[in-house]
Design brief:
302 residues; alpha+beta; 4-stranded mixed β-sheet; 19% strand; 5 helices
Length: 302
C-alpha cells in the first residue's frame, strides 16, 4: 500500500533529568483516572489506570474535519481508522512529555549511534538535526535542548526506551492517553480545531504555526496531564501497521500484528495539516526511516 502522507503533510539529556524549569513548560494536571510520577531517571510519567475505552473514529467524521482545510480529502486517507471498537488496557505509565534532544544525547554518548537494519538510530547527517559531534561527544545545538528529538528511526526510539527501562507505547495505549479521559472527541482537548495560541486549551503545533518544533510542553496538557499528544512531532508507537485495525470485537491489551513492513506513527506534527492531529489519525513508515517531524515518547508497565 502506498504511504498515506500527503504532499502538504511532507512541507514531524545534558542529563536524563528533564529540566522542568523552562518557563514555557506548564505544570501538568491530575484527573481521577491518572496520576503523575517522576521515575525512570527523572522523566515525568503519568499513570493510566486499568480501563476500557473506544478506539478509532468514523471515516465520515475524519472527512468532515479534513474538508475544513482541503478540497482534496480522500477516503483512502482515513478508512483505516474504522471501526470504532472497545479496547481493554491494563494500567501503564506513559511519559508526560516527548523525549527531548537533551535526553537523547545522553543515550547517544553512552551507547553511540548504532546501526540497525541498515540505518543508524539517529540520522545525524541530516541538515535538520539539532545534535552534532563536538570534540568526540554528542552535543545539542544551543536553544534546542528541550525540543523533541527528531530524525530518529523506530529502532532508535525503541532502543532509547529500553535503555531507560521502558518501551514504546502500543497504539492502543497511545490513543487512550491522547484522549485524556474524553469520549468520542476529535482531539486531546475536545472538538475545537487546533490553535497556535500557546495559552489556548486547544493549542497545538501544526502547519498553521511557524514551521518548526517547539519546546515540549509549550501548549496546554490534556485531561491526563500529558503534553503534545497533538502536534509538534509524530510519535513512533510499538505496533506494526495493519489497515484492518484489529476489528470490532473487544480486545485486551492489543499489540497489533505479529509482523509487518511499516510501523505506526501517531499524533501529527508541526508540518501536518490540523486534521492530521486528531487522536484517531494513523500514519506509518518503515522502521528504518526517519525525518524532521518524527519523534517519540516512552511507556512502561508498572
Amino acid at each position: 500500500m502506498e504511504r498515506k502522507f500527503s504532499p502538504s503533510f511532507l512541507i514531524l539529556v545534558s542529563s536524563l533529568f528533564f529540566s522542568f524549569a523552562c518557563t514555557s513548560v506548564q505544570s501538568p494536571t491530575n484527573t481521577t483516572d491518572s496520576s503523575l510520577k517522576t521515575d525512570i531517571e527523572g522523566r515525568l510519567e503519568v499513570l493510566i489506570d486499568i480501563s476500557e475505552f473506544q478506539m478509532g473514529d468514523l471515516v465520515d467524521s475524519a472527512i468532515k474535519e479534513c474538508e475544513q482545510y482541503s478540497s482534496e480529502c480522500d477516503l483512502i486517507d482515513f478508512y483505516d481508522q474504522e471501526p470504532i471498537h472497545d479496547v481493554s488496557l491494563a494500567s501503564y505509565y506513559i511519559d508526560a512529555y516527548e523525549v527531548t534532544n537533551s535526553q537523547f544525547v545522553v543515550f547517544l554518548n553512552e551507547k553511540d549511534n548504532q546501526e540497525q537494519n541498515g540505518s543508524t538510530w539517529l540520522d545525524e547527517n541530516d541538515l535538520d538535526i539539532r545534535i552534532r559531534m563536538e570534540n568526540g561527544k554528542y552535543v545539542v545545538d544551543e536553544g534546542f535542548e528541550e525540543h523533541p528529538i527528531v530524525e530518529v528511526t523506530w529502532y532508535g526510539a525503541q532502543a532509547y526506551c529500553e535503555w531507560t527501562g521502558s518501551r514504546l507505547p502500543t497504539e492502543a495505549e497511545w490513543e487512550k492517553a491522547a484522549r485524556g479521559g474524553l469520549i468520542g472527541k476529535l482531539f486531546p482537548w475536545g472538538d475545537d480545531a487546533p490553535s497556535c495560541e500557546q495559552d489556548s486549551v486547544n493549542g497545538a503545533q501544526s502547519s498553521l504555526c511557524p514551521p518548526e518544533t517547539v519546546l515540549v510542553g509549550s501548549y496546554s496538557p490534556n485531561g491526563f496531564g500529558i503534553y503534545d499528544m497533538a502536534g509538534n512531532v509524530w510519535e513512533w508507537v510499538y505496533d506494526w501497521y495493519s489497515e484492518d485495525y484489529y476489528g470490532s470485537s473487544p480486545l485486551n491489551n492489543p499489540k497489533g500484528p505479529a509482523d509487518g513492513t511499516m510501523k505506526v506513527l501517531r499524533g501529527g506534527s508541526w508540518n501536518a495539516e490540523p486534521y492530521f492531529l486528531r487522536v484517531a489519525e494513523r500514519e506509518y513508515l518503515t522502521p528504518e526511516e526517519s525525518d524532521d517531524f518524527i519523534g517519540f515518547r516512552c511507556a512502561r508497565t508498572p
